[in-house]
UniProtKB/TrEMBL annotation:
Protein name: GreA/GreB family elongation factor
Region annotated Disordered, chain positions: 1-22
Signal peptide from the UniProt entry: none
GO molecular function: translation elongation factor activity
Lineage, opening ranks: Bacteria, Pseudomonadati, Pseudomonadota, Alphaproteobacteria, Sphingomonadales
Residue stretches making up the Transcription elongation factor GreA/GreB C-terminal domain: 81-149
SUPFAM superfamilies per UniProt: FKBP-like (SSF54534)
Length: 151
């Protein structure tokens, strides 16, 4: 058999594993953010200590991500009363449906009940107050702020 059709191992053909991408911009979080990030670091350290050398490699990469996030955290002060910002729970109407979301830091977001401050929906609402409207997805006055609670 020709050498061209032989592989020594599958490892030589795998894509290199790069670091986890850090979101662009500042690492702004709510007051709960540092504890959440610290918890991720501790959890990963425990899992790495219990893992085999081979299983620890992806965990170490994830740990580097979370340590970087912990080192760059910027806790944001609560916004002014009734103003939407990082640390707000906003009830709003979008396309006729009422919804409530918290606006948080990137690493605190879950996509269901909390969105990161850099998400298009959050950016459209930041700085508004109850009763105001915002343009969204090319529609004028698509979002109407119903209430704002800063926590």
């Amino acid at each position: 058999m020709s050498v061209a059709f032989r592989r020594e191992s599958d490892e030589e053909h795998l894509e290199p594993r790069f670091e986890l991408p850090i979101p662009p911009g500042p690492n702004r979080v709510t007051a709960a953010g540092p504890a959440l990030i610290a918890g991720k670091v501790v959890d990963l350290e425990v899992r790495i200590a219990a893992a085999s050398t081979e299983d620890a490699v992806p965990l170490l990469r994830e740990l580097r991500y979370w340590r970087t996030r912990a080192a760059t955290v910027e806790v944001m002060p609560l916004p002014e009363d009734d103003e939407v910002g990082i640390g707000s729970r906003v009830t709003f109407a979008l396309n006729g449906a009422e919804r409530t979301l918290a606006i948080v830091g990137h690493d605190e977001a879950n996509g269901e009940t909390a969105v990161g401050f850099a998400a298009p929906l959050a950016r459209a609402m930041i700085g508004l107050q109850a009763g105001e409207t915002a343009n969204f997805q090319g529609r004028t006055d698509a979002i109407r702020i119903l209430s704002v609670e800063n926590y």
